[in-house]
Design a protein that fits this description.
about 120 residues, mainly beta, Immunoglobulin-like, 5-stranded antiparallel β-sheet, 4-stranded antiparallel β-sheet, 9 strands, globular
Amino acid sequence: MKNNGYVQDTNNQRNYMFERLDLGVGETVYGLGERFTALVRNGQTVETWNRDGGTSTEQAYKNIPFYMTNRGYGVLVNHPQCVSFEVGSEKVSKVQFSVESEYLEYLLSTARRRSGT
């Protein structure tokens, strides 16, 4: 299975870029801004798009296209519009994120472990 790509939806003339990153066994994902769902994002599909959704929906006021894992790294998708995340929901061993665009930029940050901890 390809881990990144470009998809063109010819029905509505939209272009999408996506990336799939591996999730290890027991790896948990946190983040993506304010949500009214479980803190661990594994098994969830999350759209980071700011809109007035109220508290009775999964929509949120504080969407942040950044997640971190218990393995000590984080991913920030640098995109001004909607970013869709599938966190172990389509495939349990992958995090997929996609944007409606012809480019996709993301940054990976890692935490250095201090010796003796």
